[in-house]
Amino acid sequence: MKCERCNTRVKPAVELQPGSSYHGFCPTCNAKIVFKSDVPTKSTLTFTLNGKPQKVQNPDPDMTLNEYIRTIAGLKGTKLSCAEGGCGACVVAITKKDTASGKDVTVPANSCLRLLAACEGLQITTVEGIGSTRTKMHPVQKTLATHWGSQCGGCSSGMVMSMYSLLQRSPQPTKQEVEDCLDGNICRCTGYRPILDAFKSFAVDADFPASTDIEDMSGVYHTPCDKLPCGQACADQCSTDRKLARLKIAADTVSWIEPVDLDDLLSIVDSHKKDKYMLVFGNTSTGVFKDQNPTLKIDVSRLVALQSTNSDHDGTLHIGAGVTIAALIDYLIQQKALSDSFETLADHLKKVASTPIRSVASWAGNVMMVHDNPDFPSDIFTIMAGANATLTVNSKSQGTKTLNFFDFLQFDMAGWVITSLSIPALKKGDHFTTHKVMKRHENCHAYINAAILINLDSSNTVQGTPTMVFGGFTPYASKSTAAAKQLAGQKLTADLIQQAADTLAQEFQPDSPAPFASVPYRRSLLTTLFYKSMLAALPSISPKVASAAKPYVRPVTSGEQSYDTDPSLYPVSQPLPKVSAFMQTTGEAQYTDDAFIRPGSLFAAFVHAEQGNCTLASVDSSAALHMDGVVDVILGNDMGVTSPVGGDGPDQEPCLVKVGDRILFNGQAYAVVLATTQAKANAAAKLVTAKYTDVKPVITTLDDAIANKSFFDAQVPPVKTGKDIKTALQECDHVIEGEVSCGSQYHFYMETQTAMAFPTDDGGLELHASTQNVSDTQLFASQATGLPASKINVVMKRAGGSYGGKITRSWFTATVVAYAANKHNLPVRCVLELHSNMRLVGKRHPFKCVYKVGTLKSKLHAVDMQWYADAGAYVFDSDGTMGQGQTACDAAYYCPNWQVVSTVCQTNTPSNTATRAPGCLPAVYMMETVMDHLAKSLKVDPSTFRQNNVYQQGQITPTGMTLRYCSLSHLWSQFLDAIGYDARKKAVDQYNANNTWTKQGFAIAPNKYGLGVGGFYHVSTHVLVNGGDGTVAVTCGGNEIGQGLDTKLAQVVAQQLGLKMEQVAVHSNTSMLHGNNTPTGGSCTSDAVSYAAIDACQQINTALKPLRSKNPDASWEEIVGMAKDQGIDLGARGWCAKPGAEGGFDYNSYGMVANQVQVDILTGEVQILRTDILFDCGQSMNPAIDIGQVEGGYVMGLGYFLTEEILYDKKSGRLVTDGTWEYKPPSSKDIPIDFRVNLLKNAPNPVGVLRSKASGEPPTCMASSVVFAVKQAIESSLKERGEMPDYLAVNAPLTPENIQQLCKVSPKQFSV
């Protein structure tokens, strides 16, 4: 280059590497010269996928790794469910070079968030890459299957990869580390216990260690690289000869660039400071803020200069902006000897997001989310600001600045980059505490978070001004000034704490954007978290308040299961793994969207209304149609039949609303976009707009519907038994009145509503749908297309969860793809995004009960109930739900006189539908509330009152069923002894006497649930014996949705024919073979298809009987070979259509449950310390599967009563809890810490199929008992503080907010 001063041509003294610089001097004039080598650019992305090199030319900067894995690489084991990093179904393992150690490190990552372009040089491993049933299964895969940890399988591959990643990082983890690593994985089926048990067998402190070789544990079963003797995989070139090159991609709407060093980054940012750019590290922010739409994405994930960590002599830590949250946690723990605050910060950071997020997300990215989004409740911002940490920011043109966190919020970051974080150590006398209150115990944003730093001298006098930072109460986090000044220089006493708490409560101006918690709750949390911190700072406090000073540390989960089996019946009664479990844990099991994408396929996405209760005036689809890849936009007016069931009326919800018709709820579909990829269809759907007229106020709650008398005309017949209810009530010696309500619940199936249709050569369609209802799906596809039903074959192999949500709600996707495929004569598929699914599809019916109930001599004598149920916008599924609920109106209690009147209400919300134990779950809860109210009013022990009123054998239910087999009275006494009820109740009472701010509750309840195959189920089973080898193919009219139907069916067929399980294969349900079958649901479909299978097998055995008589020594294979040669039919069709039994059910399932809980009165948070369940399964066909159903159903019920809340915007009617960010099903740390399930022994069911009883739905109802355990804890606190009303009425769900508000905590009660 030329010297700028004297024009002398100068060469650098050393050879420059690409992207490097050299500082030298001109030999002529001695001027300083900086040499910098240009960095070559490339547009080809290189990485490995399961050990195989991948080269992608000009990758789409918006394409996720998940989309590449599933649609380009064709690996369908990695699932896509929420697309926002909240469920874990998409987890893969990423191996990269660790900057600090220089070694390869493997971490879990959400492939739905990871951008493909950010995978340069990485080694990606999916579930297929570690093992398969065709080669060799990885021990993690095999152990999960053999421990019954996979039911529907929708979560299994993600679970496997989370555990696999942990074992790569830590081959001998502790049980605690195992439980911690699953904080980003949701399972709706199992209740988590079997998954935790399976994976904890790999722990170094395992109770029952897995017997595996270390080589098996670390082995990755793919072909290694052969370029180096180490055998490691690499992307393109071995590390010894890789040349530095910058990935640069130019696309139509967004470009991508990867800077090679910090100077390069600062130059890029400076030159684009007026553009909309985005620094990409883990891309995890898109899980929360999805519509960022930058024009330039700058990949900083591999910048070594941002990944340094070091400390000063005074203990201050410096952490680069490119350090992941997980690495920051590790570094803080490593340096905890320098300051107690470092471990406190690390413990809090473990509550941020999840392991897959923390492993790839940078702390700086989290802080920038706060800068750009005022309502983002960042824990990192709050705790670092509370620790008086500072940020260093750099600019190419303006140099370096150091900012405190609150100055950073006001700083214009255009052209600037966060480069490091500095965290000071504590000084003598400092006390640092942090808090986070969440709806569930992990992977959940905060209601309120806090960090408080206070310095006390030896006399407990506050030195200086405390730092007190609170997040979640106002836009951005807030730092206290008034309350902090009030504390400065004062001795910390109870009076001062009370005064400062009062000041704090009034110091900030709150906001309450939906779906944040209410202002009163968040205001109260400001004071209670402050109080907790003050207690923690004081050296001496009363033992009664000590539990508030220390956070509860949840121990490792444990569980016990017991059951009996009968070897003489094997394989029936044998605890076998699910027949598809091994395929599910290896990712080989195919679900609807996993089928091969045929050439020319189109993909569908629904367009949703953004306003409820209005008229659809017009639709503008022009912008969508101009988008590349968009083929068509279908409107409701285009379809000859808009309703799936081919008509109009209150029970006929249209697939697509026609222009000119009413839109009843926000989220209702009025158009469908067809495009060449699902991503393009989803994007184009957002470009379709509509005009709305005649907008009327929306009704979004059951109470609003009742107040506005928004009722459907069609009503459910009332339940009336015994005397006239007024007369019966007059005979009572004690009468109470009250009301109770319970909310809604989203099914949260991991596989959203999915369908695909293929035109056939005869002008028909093959329709694959994730549905519980094959026959009606065929009918409604016929209605929509005009094709005869005989030309539409619906195929259903398995569903990734359903829980009732795919009985009728699956018709929308199925009908639309059938119509579109028939219209375009092309394959069409539709996979609803989670947000789309939650907005369009109805959920569990909310219920309300107004009751007047009386007793006579402490026995139930008269029950008068007025029920209200929220049907949503249409009534279609509500009559059935209300009717089924009425069958459980008595819960498990006898009363001679009943009246239950039911009203179905209309709201401007999606049409609610069947959800596990539809109607029965709220019915049981409402009756249990009545029993609790009566016991409290009569001043008797609730458990004793319940026991004295349970059904006895021979009594008659309100539906007219005589209980010929009723064991409740016997079960109760047996259960009390088994769980040590008396001793535990005394221990709970003693705990409550010793603790003011944490209380325990202990509740027990019975369960009765009507079941049976009679009356409802009309299903068929085909059994075909292959005459060549004797193996058997089975197909039935029931659907495998995770409940183990295929396994139980195979067990029954094997037993009936005298075969081994491996000789029986269960195939897909098709409408061609099983038309006119009833839907899968109601817990008894497994029983019904088994009943039909027995019929079919008896036909085959009868046909083979003559041959067996003549050839007694012949093997099975020889017998069926002879039959084949003689033309004997080796196939049979069994049919189940039993008449309905008296009172509607063949039998009842009985059970008992006890819950012991601990409640933090100051925050409302709950820990379930122990749950005991005794469940009557008759002679279980497969006790391990039935225990899985008990645990899974029960935990789903826990979610309904404790963590899951459906909220709508009051103005537009939009669902605001429409994704994993706001909707919180239970996580693995929300289940009982001690979880004990026992199947009742020696209790064969004389009227059940093979003496069994069903298990899918009854345990869900048993979860209602947790409410009364929590209620006991609340009542204990209220009584101690003199706040107890005559009767404490509670409604479900009992979220932390609702619990804490019931506790009526006041700063005046704060003592030390």
Automatic annotation (TrEMBL):
Residues 249-428 form the FAD-binding PCMH-type domain. [2Fe-2S] cluster 1 binds at C82, C87, C90, C112. FAD binds at S362, W363, A364, G365, N366, D375, K436. The keyword Isomerase does not apply. The active site is at E1257 (proton acceptor). One of its GO terms (molecular function) is oxidoreductase activity. SMART domains: Ald_Xan_dh_C, CO_deh_flav_C. Its cofactor is Mo-molybdopterin; [2Fe-2S] cluster; FAD. Residues 43-130 form the 2Fe-2S ferredoxin-type domain. It comes from the Eukaryota. The keyword Metal-binding applies. [2Fe-2S] cluster 2 binds at C152, C155, C187, C189. Binds 1 Mo-molybdopterin (Mo-MPT) cofactor per subunit. Keywords: 2Fe-2S, FAD, Flavoprotein, Iron, Iron-sulfur, Metal-binding, Molybdenum, NAD, Oxidoreductase. Pfam families: Ald_Xan_dh_C, CO_deh_flav_C, FAD_binding_5, Fer2, Fer2_2, MoCoBD_1, MoCoBD_2. Belongs to the xanthine dehydrogenase family. This is Aldehyde oxidase.
